[in-house]
Structures are given as structure tokens and as C-alpha cells.
Amino acid sequence: MLKPRISVLYRTLLKPQSQCQHHALRPLPSQFRKFTSAPHLRLPANPPPQDGAKPSEKEEDVFVPKPLGRPIGFPTPPKAGENTGVRSRKKYTGTTMSERNLEKRKDIVEKWSQNYFRDFKNIRKYKKGKTFLANSRIFRQDMALYFPNFHGGTLEAGTADTTPVLSGKVSVVRVYSSVWGEAQVETFTGTKENEELHELLRQSGDVAQQVDVNIEENWIKAWIIKLFQWRLRKLRRKEDWGKYFVVRRGVSDLIRETIGLLNGRVGYVYLVDKDCKIRWAGSGDAEGTEKDDLTKGLQRLIGEQRGQTVRPSKPKPKKQQPEVVQTEDQGLPIPAPIVF
Questions:
Q1: Which residues, 6 or more positions from 249, have their beta carbon under 8 angstroms from its beta carbon?
Q2: Where is the composition biased (Basic and acidic residues) (predicted)?
Q3: pTM score > 0.70 for this model?
């Protein structure tokens, strides 16, 4: 069997390519406009800023936190035993198996759409997770809403609820779920950062207290916290061991959206009165006068608890002294009339 010549194969392969190169090197007609000569079609993706102007930022990256416009919390008072995390099995009401599976699929999609990285995106987007500014004054007692009940383990043996601990006392409640969130809370309530706050807590006796709620839904981290409980006990007095909660379950999305726990990696501070009402709230790092506002709010609530509500005093009107007028006729002094 004869094999074809190699030269014939090369000739057949190279001939179309040479023709294409010949056509590609042919000069363009003068009546056609070159693409590079149209500047409006070749704009850069990020145009350089003008003289003295800063590069433009996206609208989502220029978020400015604002003070709370209304009280936050629940309209009904909390009860011990709520939000324990024990949920009853949901019953799907579809008539057929496919309809019930579609309902289950919706729940699964909704659960997985709220992923772990959403919180880290909010940290970058909202000034280290700060989503709102604290108000300069506390909320009125008749307008304030209630702080929910949390159920979890304490530094003492067993589990407990936060409602019995908060009832009857003024409480500075610190809520966090990470070391970084705890560091943010320290900017409000740290012993070095806010010495006046701790002095008020010491002088109040049993009227005011500080309560920590460490929300840790990851069972591995919760196990590590339980392993190092001896260290946490050393940092606190024995009577304060029951005021440190490690919450693993029961913190639903409704609770987070209602009291402002919009970011699970950020620290939050609440002032809660004897009726478990939220009178003041702060998030993220303390900025401006937020730390002083927390101290003033605590002092105001301690006064309310003791029945010493401070009200602005009105200046008393001064009594007008009668002026002595000298008469020209008689030369006797007579009192001038007092105008009321």
C-alpha cells in the first residue's frame, strides 16, 4: 500500500493558511473608520478622578448608621421557659407527596440562604458591623418594649433563664457571640474604658447589675467555652456566676430582627429596667457620646428604681420688692404700686 507524499500533505495544509494571511495583511480601505479612533467606545472601566476629587464609592459602601427612631423589643412581657430551642415538628399540609416536598424545599432554601458569610459582609459594609447609633436619652417607661427571654447554661451548675435574673433590677445586658464582639462591648462597659459605670454599679448595691449573654450556636465553640469555665469564674465574683449565660439555641430570626441583633459577630449593649423593658441600646464600637449616654441612662434608671426620679426644676419667680418713691408735694416716701 502506497503512502502519500509528505510534501503533498504540507502543501494542502499550508495553502489555505497562506491565503488567510494574505487577506489579513491586505490594507483596509480609507473610507472605513478604525475602531481605536472612537474614544466613546473605549472608555475605561473606572475613569480617573478629577483634580482634587476622591474616587466615587458605591452606595452600599457609604452607609451611615442613624439613631434608633423608636423603641425596640417585644410588646408582651417575657416569661421563663420561652425560647428554649425545643421546637415541635412542623406538619406540612399538602394533599399530595409532591406538594409536601415542595413546602419542605422552601423551608430548606430559606434556611440555607442565610449563610455564615452574610454577617462578615455586613461587617465590611456597615462600619465594623455598627448598624445603628445609640440615643442620647433613654426611652420612656410607658413607651419602651420588652427584652426577650434567653435560655442557656451559666457558670453555675445547670441551665437557667434570663428573665428571673433581670426582673426587679436595673441591668446592663451585654450580648455577643465572638471575641471580637466582646471587645466591642468592652468599649462601652470596660473597667478601663468606663470607670464611672462600674462605680455606679458598685454604689447601687443590689439595685443594678451587669449580665452577659454569650450566644454561641456552634457546638464546638460552646464546648470550648464549657472547657474553660474555670477561667471565666476567676474573672468574676461568685455571686455573679449566675449572670453569665451561654446560649446555644432559641435565638430565632424574629428575636434578632426585633431587638436589633442584625449581625451575629457584633457586640450589643442594652439597658433593661426592673420590668425587663429595653430603655437604651447600642451596637458595635462606642462612638461619640454613646459611652457617656450609657452611664447617664444607668444613673437615671437607678434613680427611678429607688423612687428618686430626677425632674428638671423650674426656677422660682423672684418677689418684687416695693420701690420707695419720693413725692415733691409732701416730701413723704410712699410705696410704689406692685404690678402682678
A1: 84, 85, 86, 151, 217
A2: 54-63
A3: no
